[in-house]
TrEMBL record:
Its EC number is 2.1.1.72. Coiled coil: none annotated. Keywords: Methyltransferase, S-adenosyl-L-methionine, Transferase. Transmembrane segments: none annotated. It catalyses: a 2'-deoxyadenosine in DNA + S-adenosyl-L-methionine = an N(6)-methyl-2'-deoxyadenosine in DNA + S-adenosyl-L-homocysteine + H(+). It comes from the Bacteria. It comes from Candidatus Methylobacter favarea. This is site-specific DNA-methyltransferase (adenine-specific).
Length: 701
């Protein structure tokens, strides 16, 4: 840098003007002649380590007769044929930045290292500006659109809000965390297209080193031929493949020929018959004028080594594996990647889970897996798909592992609040209360013991940040309301105690206080969502179930499901809509609205039955037999185990809708208990919006 350059930079800084880009490069010049820079680039990487909270543990029971594989020696099973030890696969719901940081810096890192480390990462991050991550619900012969959640919209705005610079910032930090997690012999495959491939190649060179670049794989797929006036039709995606080091695992991948005719056609040679035999062969050029005899039966059996151009069809709508997820990739694509860059028993990961294709293929290929996604619907889609894989493997007598659904739960909420208040307790309590009331559009009130705000003639209680709203808390609210002659109150909470039933709420109403329970959405932590009124507080849904008891066995019958969800303002919609039809959700009903050319509106309720709302339900027949234990680090940095006060939901029986079979079973199998006594049965319902509702039933044998 010249003296003249320095003087000019000082003048610009004093004047408060922006520095030209060439000066930025000069200020940060080093031995490198190229510097990767964009607006918003940060070298710091999140290093928070939050404990993982267990939502569900899923393991289709194995029968003694099914235990044909060798891997059963790796982990024991209990009397029900369910896995007791060994690695449990992980499906994690939440922000993958916090998840990656918690995996890299928390106690689970030790578990990963014990399994030999993370050998392979495949990711298919969003790379289309303006992409829509909504999905459709088929009901009553009609299609209802379920819009992406606000939390997904916010994440997407953060990704693309400032164009490519905000996308690079989002990807850079996550890729650095992935690099940290990968084993030395690990690999990463990043799936993208023409929009971002050049940018991501530079990021990966920066993080992994250009010397560890292996391939830019072109995935070529078929489609409709279109005549374009401005260029050739785009017909491939790119998959960037990097090793962490020159030790990375790689297995040459062979693609078998479909037939002898295909082999001959590709070789463009007429086969010959070997003299004295009936074996066919072709002669290939061996160099220097030599010819090599190649027998067709051997060549076809061996196959051809795959190069970096892959011709694989996109997922067909009628394919058996299709789960109607917008960005679903074919299993054949993931099978090729997983076989090439991992071995049986290896641990692999996908941090943009989508429909769960990576995990499904990994399970079938006897790999262990971790997969994560921000979207609730993605997690639910993957859950159903992976249960289907377990059932498929069980039916064929093959080995499989249990998997658990995790999230960061209350720890994620605490992190958001600490981040907003720098950990100051009093400031945190005040800010938390103001935050929730503002999102709910309620006015704060003082001089009340249990009530914090009011809205449209109703009083409001804001539930705690990190524990469920309990029945005793509702009784305290009820007593204050009765003393002050208040008749209506809304109770807002992130979680609600399992014992809260419609009957209990009805009893409070009959005693003079109408109590409505509402879930606080994650969106309250995003100021933009609150300002735009996008933080929706849904009413708590309820389910009813009947116990059929005979001797020491119990069957559970699902008998009712009640919800008051509303997604659309129907009056506003009716005024703005043109002739045609639209499917909306209002007050617990899915309604088709039709408007003809004369402006006449007809409404048809599509959810004619309570079970139209249900997509999945499951049972744990002995809910309180397994405590939820989390691993945390104490003040000395040591990993210790801690009981959360909750129990692990062991998914022992489930019924759910699939594209192939949309029917539900409403009565479970008969579960036999080994000992007489009192048991708590938990019933869990996941509705068509992907929201969980649970109920505990006590049985006595």
């Amino acid at each position: 840098m010249t003296e003249q350059d320095r003087d000019r930079i000082l003048e610009l800084i004093k004047a408060g003007e922006k520095l030209p880009k060439e000066y930025i490069y000069k200020l940060f010049a080093d031995e490198e002649d190229v510097f990767l820079f964009w607006n918003g680039r940060k070298e710091e990487v999140t290093n928070i380590a939050l404990p993982f909270h267990s939502i569900e543990h899923i393991d289709v029971p194995r029968k003694e007769a099914d235990r044909k594989g060798d891997n059963f020696d790796l982990f024991a099973t209990d009397l029900r044929g369910r896995q007791q030890k060994g690695w449990t696969n992980k499906l994690i719901w939440g922000d993958n930045k916090l998840i990656l940081s918690s995996l890299a810096n928390g106690p689970m890192r030790e578990e990963i290292e014990q399994e030999g480390g993370l050998k392979l990462i495949y990711i298919d991050p969003p790379f289309a500006v303006g992409a829509d991550f909504g999905f459709n619900i088929e009901i009553g012969g009609e299609t209802a659109e379920k819009k992406q959640s606000i939390i997904e919209e916010i994440a997407y705005r953060d990704t693309w809000g400032k164009g490519i610079s905000s996308y690079l910032t989002m990807m850079y930090e996550r890729l650095k965390l992935m690099h940290n997690l990968l084993a030395e012999d690990g690999s990463i495959y990043v799936h993208c297209d023409w929009r971002v491939v050049n940018y991501l190649r530079l990021l990966l060179d920066d993080i992994f080193g250009s010397g560890n670049f292996r391939n830019s794989i072109a995935w070529n797929y078929s489609g409709w031929n279109k005549k374009l006036n401005y260029g050739f039709e785009k017909r491939y995606d790119s998959i960037l493949f990097y090793g962490k080091s020159n030790k990375q695992i790689f297995n040459s991948y062979f693609e078998k020929w479909d037939s002898k005719e295909e082999y001959v056609k590709r070789r463009k040679q007429k086969p010959l018959i070997e003299e004295g035999t009936k074996r066919e062969y072709v002669l290939s050029d061996g160099g220097n004028g030599t010819r090599i005899k190649r027998y067709l039966d051997e060549a076809i059996a061996e196959g051809v080594v795959v190069d970096d151009v892959w011709s694989l069809d996109k997922l067909n709508n009628s394919a058996k594996e299709n789960v109607d997820y917008p960005t679903q990739k074919p299993e054949a694509l993931l099978e090729r990647i997983i076989k090439a860059s991992s071995n049986e028993g290896d641990l692999i990961a996908d941090f943009f889970c989508g429909s769960g294709t990576t995990a499904a293929v990994a399970e079938k290929l006897e790999r262990k897996w971790i997969t994560t996604d921000l979207g609730r619907f993605s997690i639910h889609t993957a859950r159903k798909r992976l249960i289907g894989v377990q059932r498929e493997l069980q039916a064929s007598g093959k080995d499989f592992r249990a998997f658990e659904i995790l999230n960061l739960g209350k720890y994620e909420r605490q992190f958001f609040m600490d981040d907003l208040t720098n950990g100051k307790r009093k400031a945190k309590e005040d800010l938390y209360m103001d935050l929730i009331l503002e999102a709910y559009k309620a006015k704060r009130i003082e001089d009340h013991r249990t009530l914090h705000g009011s809205k449209a003639g109703r009083f409001v209680n804001v539930g705690p940040l990190d524990v469920p709203v309990t029945q005793s808390r509702l009784m305290d609210i009820f007593e204050e309301c009765r003393q002050k002659l208040y008749t209506q109150v809304d109770v807002l909470g992130f979680e609600f105690e399992m014992g809260l039933t419609p009957q209990f709420i009805q009893e409070l109403k009959e005693k003079g206080v109408s109590v409505t329970l509402k879930y606080i959405p994650k969106e309250v932590f995003d100021k933009r969502a609150v300002e735009k009124g996008q933080a929706k507080f849904f009413d708590v849904a309820y389910l009813n179930a009947k116990v059929h008891q005979k001797a020491n066995s119990v069957q559970i019958e699902l008998t009712d499901f009640v919800t008051h969800y509303t997604q659309d303002d129907i009056e506003e919609l009716q005024q703005s809509m043109r002739a045609g039809s639209k499917v909306v959700i209002e007050d617990g009903q899915i309604i088709k609205i039709e408007k003809d050319k004369n402006g006449i509106i007809n409404r048809t309720v599509l959810t004619q039955n309570w079970y139209d709302w249900i997509d999945y339900w499951a049972i744990d027949f002995n809910y309180e037999d397994k405590q939820e234990i989390i691993k945390v680090k104490n003040d000395k940095g040591e990993t210790v185990e801690k009981w959360t006060g909750n129990y692990l939901f062991e998914n022992e029986w489930q019924s759910f809708r699939t594209k192939k079979n949309p029917k539900l079973e409403f009565t479970s199998i008969a579960h036999e208990y080994q000992q007489p006594g009192k048991y708590k049965v938990m019933v869990k319902v996941v509705d068509i919006l992907g929201i969980d509702t649970s109920k505990i039933i006590e049985v006595k044998l």
